[in-house]
Amino acid sequence: MIFSNYSTLSKMSQFFLDIEDMPTHFALCQRRKLLNPDIFKRINRLFLYSFDNYVTINGYHILAQDGSDINIPFIDGDTKITNNDLVIPPCCRYHINALYDCLNHTFLDWRIDTAQKKQENDALINIIYHSDYPQNTVFTADRGYENYNLIAHIIDNNLKFVILVKDINTKTGIMTNIQTPDGTFDINATRILTRLQTKEVKTDKKKDAFNKVKNTLGMIYFHAINRVLIQQDTNTTFLMYNVSEVMINNIEINQKQNRRYRYKANFANAVTNIRLYLRNLLNEKNLIS
Question: What totals of helices (H) and strands (E) does the chain contain, helices first?
Answer without folding.
Answer: 10, 6
